[in-house]
Queue: 3 jobs
Job 1
Amino acid sequence: MRIRVDPGGRLEGVTRVPGDKSIAHRWLILAATAEGPSSLLNVPPSLDVRSMAWCLGALTDKARPALNGWAANDGVAAEDHRSTWNVEVETGDGGRTGVPLEVEGEGRHGLLEPSQALDCGNSGSAMRMLMGLVASEPFRVVLTGDPSLRSRPMERVAAPLRAMGATIQTSRGHAPVTLMGGPLDGIDFRSPTPSAQVKTAVLLAGLEAAGRTRVREAAPTRDHLERALTTLGAPIEVRDGEVSLSRFQHQGFSGAVPGDPSSAAFLVAAAALTASELTITDVGLNPTRIRFLDVMERMGVRTERVTRREELGEPVGDIHVVGAGAIGPVRVEPSELPLVIDEVPVLALLAAHAPANSRFLGAAELRVKESDRLEGIASGIRDAGGHAAVEGDDLVLGGGGLAGGVIDARGDHRLAMAFAASGLSARASIEIVGAESAEVSFPGFFGGLAALGASIETVGET
């Protein structure tokens, strides 16, 4: 799909974003491996989460009908413009909305050997977390995915799982991954690369390992699994960049997945670039996920946050974009970058409109996402008449705004949405080729942005 974004206009209203993918991945795993039924609301029907649901369905018996049925349903809470994130059905329990996904779990002991390879699609989260889940199981599992996923590094997960006792083969460090699980021993693992996916995989394996499993992080990463396990009563300790736990089997639970703050970041940037006021409701306000708001504040974007409730340990509330003056330059240090890694594309495109240079330092991890985001951001900005360069592992934005032009999203959902938000403040129209990639994480993004007041039009197929 090729869409055109015209500059100008204002965004107005109150809106919601899809459920948080990071949380949904972890809660689906916990629901499929719980002893007893679990009820999940607002599970985002994005392609990545569907991939996780399909894979878990292949590993379970009682949970399979619900997971496969949900993953196969293209009409999950969808309107005619394919928005799946602004449908509200009040249930009278403090903001929870929608039709729940009911999953019947049989515990970790209920996992079964799949009859074929698990296809994780484009989801690195699904593949890496599933490696940790099945590492303790006495059967063979092959995990694969699309060409993009098969190019991403998997040894960072395989290595600590091997140290715990699993037998794992990768294809020169990448997928397909062949894993033969079995009895595991807890380890003391110091993660060389800040990665919530690696941490989650090791902790999931640790829940079935003998002894205690400890993960030490070089920099803090998102803590969704730790919060959920704490709420479910696991013997887990979290302190000073260290997480430790021991064997634990949880019971069924209920929860409404908070709105995805990474998705909200695109709407916050769009509102800031059009001098608009906008409220995003029911969004996750986990401190490990909203550091991008602090970066935006340094750039002149003003927001207000109100926490209204908790869901399985996750704070949930509203983000109100108060407005912005002139967008200013920013410098993001390597120590801060892991906490905004998913938002770098939209932060960079926001910084492209500043009057001076901005720098994102130590951003090598962006090279191994759905695309080489370092090069994708820089070349896309140049294609739109802006100034950007990659210097080693640093992303340098020259500022001065965007003139307009044609951008290739490179099959990357975050690039497609970042350029769309930035195009609202360009000097001429921006056309985005491959805009359908936004469906990976934010179904209905372009229709929702148009409904808020943006000028967006589909102009052709890719």
Job 2
Amino acid sequence: MVPEELDVLASELEVRFSQDLTSRWGDLEFEELALSAFNAQFQHNPVYRRFCEGKDAVPTAVKSWRHVPMVPTTAFRHLDLVTGDHSSVRMVFRTSGTTSTTRAPGRHLVSRPSLYHASLLSSFREHLLPDVEKIKFVSLIPSPEELPHSSLSHMVGVAADTMSSETHWFVNGEGVLNSIGLRNVLEDAALEGEKILLLGTAFAFVRWLDELAGKELRRLPPESRIMETGGFKAQTRDITKEQLYKSLSTTVGLEPNRIVNEYGMTELLSQLYESNLTQPNEIQAGHTPPPWLRVRALNPTTLEPVAEHETGLLAFFDLANLGSVCHVLTEDVGRVIGGKVHLEGRFPNAEPRGCSRAMDELMASSRVTRR
């Protein structure tokens, strides 16, 4: 049975996520919801509760979301982090495991798909379709039928179900690209003046551009746009973001500011986007978090906050993670300036000392819980 207070909070958040994103949530408003989420997770997630108790971080003592204990992303590789009844889990998202062949893939157990969908749809529309209700989706990301445990494929599928006038998938579950079909659809859209949303990972775009070998296509309608996600170390060759965007822009005839980068991960159910379409003249770039997510940059050893403009490990408090753990410490590096995230890559080589220490503590709590 789902605890009643968890149900009530989830329903409130689902409504809030579905509202207009243009107005930011106040700090006090976010604080109240974040502490309510922490209380629910402390009460109904046994592994996380033991971890918090070991830090003397109980709901009556924690007065700010910043002091809620963080779970490192590595924990999702080893523990089932579920808040509530395990029987309520409806979806399992798995990491690709491509960043390390020696690490077990992580997984995120999702018990409230409607809450997750409310979060992803609001952000997707705000940053990729702020000016249109429907648009043709052309995807270099496999469909959710091909990759049912991919959070990225699921995200695109849910968005397509709601916002696409027509959807074409050109990469299968084995990563095979149908470049001829892709070219035909893009050429038809250019001839008919039909705007499209072209979606893909950096790796898929690099592979496609390599196959084209410098050939340019007919210019897409200027109202078209591209969503790109993922890192820039491809299996065929390394490429910078600027190089990739210039090549894409030249190939399909779109301005570079029509390309929007999406940042997300399996361990977080919210996504962050660049604001190229909503704030095209913005001087400071960066990724905009939705109102229900807060981001900090932390010292990799002490896990204390660094000053604004300084580089640190990125930690996220994501209310969309109500069904697991909201406060997540990543191995991604970046700066937080004016609330926006400026990504700088992954922590080099070994796991950051702060992450390692947090993981050791969490695993010790798990062993106690299982006795």
Job 3
Amino acid sequence: MTRPRVVIAGLGDSGLLTAIRLARVADVVGISVKPALVSGQELGVRLTRPADWARDYLVPFDRYRALDRVRTVQARLTRVDLAARVVYAQCADGTEVSEPYDALVISTGVSNGFWRRTALQSPVQIRAEITADHKRLAAASSVIVVGGGAAAVSAAANIAARWIGKRVDLYFPHDRPLLEHHPRTWEHLRRRLIRLGIGLHPGHRAVVPDGFGCDAITDEPVQWSTGQPPAQADAILWAIGRARPNTDWLPADLLDEDGFVKVTPELRVPGYRGVFAIGDVAATDPLRSSARNRADMVLAHNIRAEPAGRPLRSYKPPRRRWGSVIGIQSDGVEVFAPNGRPFRVPAWPVERVLMPWIVRRGIYRGIRRNQPLG
């Protein structure tokens, strides 16, 4: 039997893991605007310790041993012909490429802030951008983080921990941040942020300046629609969760009213055999949780089972977000269960067991030594 041809549109965290799982049983082509995994995870570590972050979250595709069988194409997706089963994309030099498929995985993710963009970039450009953001924050004597999600809390905590004495304030619109997590998660992290000296400002909803996409670190005063006086700092970090799905290349009938890809519990796109979606772009549930809960295992099974007529598996989303919020710290990593209770993995097993054996070798099936950032 000939091997099925699977095109994976988007090689972020979810697309990459799906490609790794299918590489031995299918001819896989991955299309990405980046030449490497540029993860949207762990924003706080990326900003404050970019070399540490890059080791695990900025990884060229040729570093993954399991991708040796996968052909990657750096290009911007432009359209798909669902009847002919062909995906089209444009390379950096303007040439168009076409990739036929037996199965299509839509995993193009979302654009969100300055750390998740869809621009075609070289490795040099990516590294320069990350370094510039780090230097901008390092030089600031005061920082305001605007937002109430995990990215905002992570940024505030890591900035305060990295640069002792820097004034850091976190402004969020509700009574507490992390509304998608169990309340215990915030109660625990609140005490940590207070110990770090971070100013906490609930009930502040920012006015986004006209024409501003929240995609840059700024220094203009922040205005509040909730009536408080403007706030100012040397660096304003916008993390207000304005996620925009990267679906402008897809037909409208595949999308819900917010522009995310409609999917069944089996991660199939309704009405189109052989078309699937996963990750932040897939409207699996209000949290779009297939991006963080190893749904790639369900998807890889279903891509193989569908043409054979075997039963498909369903993805069961969790009710709340869970996991690490502020990332690996000097004392280890703190992980929050769905019920909000934390458990800590100390630094030694994180460095010697969790990352090298469970993550790099177990989940990613082997990663060659990555080039340091710098």
